Amino acid sequence: METPDGQEFTQETQTKPVATAARAMGGSAMMLLRAVGKIIITTWRLAAALDSALWRALKLLGRRALRGLDYAGRLAGAAFRGFVLWLPTRTGRAYSAMSGAFLVVAGLWIIDVLRAAPSMDGMGTATLRPPVDVEDPILARIEGRYVHLSEIEAAARAGGFLKSGEVLTPFTAFERNLVESYVEQRLLARAALDDGLQRNPNVARKVNAARDRVLASAYMDAQLQTEVTPQAVERLYTRQSDVTRLGDEVRARHIVVETGEEAAEIITLLEEGADFGALARERSIDRATAPVGGEVGWFTRSMMTPIFSRAAFNTEPGLRAPAFQTEFGWHILEVLDRRSTESVPFDDVRTSIEDFLRMHTIETALRELEERNQVVYFRPEVEFQTTSEPPDLRDPEFVDGDEDNEEKSSSQQDDQRSDSGQQEATR
Questions:
Q1: Is there a contact between 328 and 286 (Cβ–Cβ < 8 Å)?
Q2: What are the start and end residues of every segment in region (Disordered) (predicted)?
């Protein structure tokens, strides 16, 4: 009997089933081994083929990379050679100078940043440290800009927080809160600029007025430093030897106001016991003497205008002269003391001569500037209507019998109008 697989099935084979099954399984195993072997051989051949293709690709890429590097090297060499040949030219030298300056500035900036970098204190907290400036110490920083001691001192002097000759140190600047006040003022000013307040007409007028005051003071200080020198004082003392024989000197103080009504009001306050110095500091428009309580100092008859001199020398020490009017306003004058100037040594009159030279320099500078700029004043013609108008010293009843002093030449009077020049410069 023939089986489906083509074998003959007989009685003999029927009696040996185990052997037949073994032979069938052996044939199947051989077939499986042959299939696995073929798969392994095929995989190995495929990997060998891929490895060969990859190696060829790597070699190709390597050759291309070497060619690119060679081209880039030749190009860089040509560029460097051209750069070296270009440097000695005019544009090359300019480029080198600019590059050097840039590198120097960058280096200094890096050094400054490193010096101002936060440092660790004993508690492990980062603190900023300013650059060291021995001549002008740094006291604060506002958005990267350092604030020096000189700026604090200038602002304090402008605001009247420092007396003349007072030296400001970093310790006292912080102790008196001058640094904080300066920083706050700068911050507020910057905020005003950011808000556009400088375009406001009222603000612009105030800014211009403050600017003019600062510039006028600086100009006058420069003139005084040039004219009022120790040599000039000694020359005037030597040339005018009669300065020590000008008769009596008077020390007085005064308050200057604009109207007769104000003068009468101040006289009433003084009669009621008000302090003269406090009223002068508060009400006087003569800003040169107001901060010192209206103190004018020692002066002779010829050092002031005739009206001022008559009022001062016709009043006894400790009394007040009747209010009088000049071109600068109404004066309330109080005589403090009186002395003789005969045989006064140079050291005793040095201060008076310096004051006279300052006033004369101020008046001369103002007169020259007015003439140069063709200044014309349009004063309103208004008469004062007061119930009790103070007497005018120009009234013939008030004039004493000293006719010689009233008949001085106009040029001499111009040289002696020191008080008027001081008030005009201040105003």
A1: yes
A2: 381-427
